[in-house]
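Task: sequence in, structure out. Protein: Olfactory receptor.
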Amino acid sequence: MENRTEVAAFLLLGLTDDPHLQLPLFLAFLLIYAITVLGNLGLVLLILLDPRLHSPMYFFLGNLALVDFCSSSVVTPTVMTGLLTGNKVISYNACAAQMFLFSLLICSENYLMAAMAFDRYAAVCRPLHYTTTMTTSVCVGLVSGCYACSFLNACIQTGDLFSLSFCMSNLVHHFFCDMPALMALSCSDKHITELVLVYLVSFHIFFAMFVISTSYVFIFVTILRMHSAVGHRKALSTCASHFTAVSIFYGTNIFMYLRPTASHSMDHDKISSVFYTIIIPMLNPVVYSLRNKEVKNAFLKVKHMFILSKPSKI
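Result:
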């Protein structure tokens, strides 16, 4: 008898069952999450407070920081709670909500990276037309499109997966409600659902990668035509940082989602998932902003204003 309501809750097996590792892992993830929150929300606050950062590049960066904060908050507190209390039960509805939100946010990050690459193309390759190309309406339209496509993707993926029957086991071999791990528990015919997953994720990833790759091909061609060594170094430094984040993000996602279910190793999947759910949201503020002089200057300005606002002691 197949009835998906037979499973009222799922049990997340988590990262480890070793009691000696649970406290160290909890402290490590607590530190990572604290850095993630401070880094991303601090970056959003800097962009809002400093008028010099009110440009298309930082508009996209602020949205990326907000998405990173939200995506980490969807997963990391659940992991830390399981490590600290040992309670790894998640209700059916909470599991569906977690998967929907994470799918929405990870897809948004995918498209925001593409939008940022297009913005860099416009700045490097069409500098004289940059202000007329990247207008406020264009930037808002690009970001709105990122979120709209991601919302539609999350609705399709979550609805497709949770239309399956879960009548075999409720033990999720993962630390959060990820689609491949949940799909392995279904007793329904998963062929169509697996095809939907592969085709949807393939489209989103490769479309964004096409935009990023095309943008940077034009950027590199423009750099090669530059006669300034300083311009070369500055542009290449920016591209190297971006490609580092892009490689980690797309590498883990392709490894996770674009393989047949039969070839999945859940232990390997969990290690990969740690990178794109917990580590990458912490690294992005470093990769994209802390090496940026404008962000550093904005931070020093806000710090100086905060110090001056303190009442002096007489």
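The first helix runs from residue 19 to 49.
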